[in-house]
Amino acid sequence: MFNLKRIYLLAALCVLALTVGCASSPSVKYGDSKGVETVNTNFGSTDLQTIAEAMTRSLLESHVVLDSREPPRVTVYDVRNKTSEYIDTSAITAKIRSQLTKSGRVRFTVSTSEMQNQVDELKRQTQSGLYNTQTQTKMGNMNGAKFRVEGFIGSIVKQTKDVKDVFYNFHLSLINNETGDVEWEDEKEIRKTATR
Q: What is the DSSP string of 27-95?
């Protein structure tokens, strides 16, 4: 009788261990990174790619880029998030900058968020005494950006019991740092609707 209870207990523990073990290891597979993602109405990878491609194409077609004999120097400010959800706006900025850089028609200086790293590196090379003066980077030779890119993403959310509608508006501007003139701007709108 005692051994039978022990066997039942051991069998129950084995079943529990198998159940927990199977439940904790999900099935994982790679998907198409360019495929349309429609899990929910939150800002997602498809939205990021759509915005970056539209803004890059538009800026490359602007008079600032087309009429310039040399690639214009630009710095990037972080995109402001005016939505009610968390959006990694630095990913949007990085995607746009990456595509513009790959085009070879725009040159970027360090952004405002990267400036401290640049200053730290210059100080490390010039003030630490560790570097040969012939090979160290010199202070005072950074290139200034003639333009800056800045923008925001906002949203309007409407919801009923059965429908959720989210309208995203992404706005980007290219501003002349010397004159303050807005030289180019564009926006991309995305609407996502979920029904039950």
A: ------TTSPP-SSSS--HHHHHHHHHHHHHHHHTSHHHHT-SSPPEEEEPPPEE-SSS---HHHHHHH
Is there a domain that residue 36 lies in?
no
Is pTM, for the whole model, over 0.85?
Answer: no
Number of folded domains that form the chain: 1
CA atoms within 13 A on the CB side of 145: 21
31 belongs to a structural domain: no
Counting Cα atoms < 13 Å in the Cβ hemisphere of 76 gives 23
Q: Which domain holds residue 157?
A: 42-128+145-195
Please report whether residue 24 resides in a domain: no
Asked if residue 89 is part of any domain, the answer here is yes
Per-residue pLDDT 10s for the chain (196 aa) are 556 667 777 777 767 666 665 555 678 777 776 777 777 788 888 888 999 999 999 999 999 999 999 999 999 998 999 999 999 999 999 999 999 999 999 999 988 788 888 888 888 888 888 888 888 888 888 889 999 999 999 999 999 999 999 999 999 999 999 999 999 999 999 999 999 8
Q: Select from 123, 121, 99 the least CA-distant residue to 110.
A: 121
In this structure, what CATH number is given to the domain that contains residue 55? 3.40.50.10610
